[in-house]
Specification:
The protein has 16 helices and no strands. With 447 residues, the protein is mainly α. The longest helix is centred in the middle third of the chain and has 33 residues, at 197-229. It is found in: Cell membrane.
């Protein structure tokens, strides 16, 4: 990173608003509004407006794109906070400029994951009756309630993690921040004193440790896949490989999201010296590693499903392998892996724009794979009560609008948040300037 990084750089998104910003906000608001209209339409007419249908005479699946979106957004959220926690816990200072972007991505993605639960329930009041009031009775036996619990826990952990680091930045940048958000800054810095900084640093370190430990055990490596892999009646899901598979998808998707966000901020705010090519190259290498693990685990599932498997498992695997969209997703992942490998062998082939395209490809691949995972898993249950009824599913316009709407709302989240708080930590500037002063001092001593 260049030593000319300054406070003015990280304040630029807050202080500079252009026509392009309002255009982006307008486009995101338009897609979010379309989704809102579609959801109101669904609330009025019921879930019949979706491509979902009941088992039995309906001949289809009761879970579809909504649950696929839920898994996708949860994966992005969990991978994002793991990336940020790793920066603090094991000293990956190379990626410090993107740590807060990863934290904010976690917040935005978790909100969308929670929204998908509400949307899929059909009526918002069911959150009260089926989740909140039923919690004491179901927490011991319901993987769905486990999901809600860990998502809530991670939202609290991430929000606390973010708020603690923001206190330092806001207190020192307060004179340069807009007065219209004074109530927000007052709450963030309530009771702040410089004496708390070492204590906060220790708290943040322990939070990062908790996040790193809990992620593979309880989140996208544990509770989320348990919702599926603990159901022996669903042979397409019942597989112990789901935990690591979900975790690789989460990390791949989150790194892709961070790459896209970082590129957007770099281009828009002239952050080439802040979000350097070296950061993008490193993130692309990590992306390649997790895509390799994703493909390897897919191979494990395929081999288990085609080499003398139980009849029900064979049926689910044949359905997956016969779906062109599945091979399209795998093909995208292979191309991204090849790109990551080529950039190691021939660094001149690397470019930030290609890294962004690779990130978009992975997000499309992981989303497609997760929706197919849900649909094919439900289409081929182990029990044969309704097997005579042919099943089919294709997302309706209402469901497709939800995909566009949630992406738009996350974009709106970043557009708004970037006008209120710094999306890059002040420590990035201070640490670099401190290193530059140290380097100059060493040079003077040598002279």
């Amino acid at each position: 990173m260049s030593s000319d990084v300054s406070r003015a750089d990280i304040l630029r998104p807050i202080q500079r608003t252009t026509k392009a910003y309002y255009v982006a906000l307008g486009v995101a608001s338009l897609f979010a509004g379309i989704w809102a209209i579609a959801w109101i339409y669904q609330l009025y007419h019921g879930l019949i407006v979706t491509g979902l249908s009941d088992w039995g005479t309906g001949g289809g699946v009761t879970w579809g794109m909504y649950i696929g979106l839920f898994i996708w957004w949860v994966g992005i959220a969990h991978g994002g906070i793991i990336l940020s926690a790793a920066v603090r816990l094991i000293g990956l200072t190379r990626y410090q400029p993107v740590a807060r972007l990863a934290e904010l991505l976690t917040i935005g993605a978790l909100m969308m994951a929670g929204l998908m639960i509400i949307v899929h329930l059909g009526r918002p009041d069911r959150v009260v009756w089926s989740v909140v009031l039923a919690f004491p009775r179901t927490i011991h036996t319901s993987p769905l309630i486990w999901d809600v619990t860990v998502i809530t826990m991670y939202f609290v952990l991430t929000a606390t993690y973010l708020a603690l680091t923001l206190r330092y930045d806001v207190s020192r940048l307060r004179d340069d921040l807009p007065d219209r958000f004074s109530p927000v800054y007052t709450v963030l810095t309530l009771g702040y004193s410089e004496e708390e900084d070492p204590v906060v640093q220790r708290m943040v370190w322990w939070l990062a440790l908790a996040i790193i430990i809990l992620a593979p055990l309880l989140l996208h490596g544990g509770v989320i896949p348990w919702l599926f892999q603990l159901l022996p009646s669903m042979p397409g899901w019942y597989d112990s490989v789901q935990g690591p598979q979900f975790l690789t998808i989460a990390l791949s998707s989150a790194i892709s999201g961070v790459i896209i966000l970082s590129y957007s901020f770099r281009v828009r705010y002239d952050w080439g010296h802040l979000l350097t090519d070296d950061i993008f190259r490193g993130l692309t290498m990590w992306l390649g590693l997790f895509v390799l693990l994703f493909l390897w685990l897919q191979l494990q599932q395929i081999i288990s499903g085609v080499f003398a498997p139980p009849i029900a498992v064979a049926a689910a695997t044949d359905a997956m392998l016969g779906e062109p969209l599945y091979w399209a997703a795998i093909g995208l992942a292979v191309l991204v892996l090849a790109f990551s490998f080529i950039t190691v062998v021939r660094p001149a082939w690397f470019s930030k724009e290609r890294a962004v395209l690779a990130s978009v490809a992975i997000l499309a691949a992981t989303f497609t794979e997760k929706v197919l995972f849900i649909v094919e898993g439900m289409m081929y249950p182990g029990f044969g009560l309704y097997r005579a009824v042919p099943g089919s599913y294709f997302p309706s316009v209402v469901e497709l609008s939800t995909l566009a709407g949630t992406i738009a709302m996350v974009a709106m989240f970043f557009l708004v948040v970037s006008k209120v708080i710094p999306v890059v930590e002040l420590h990035v500037v201070e640490d670099k300037h401190g290193q530059a002063r140290s380097d100059r001092g060493d040079g003077e001593v040598n002279q």
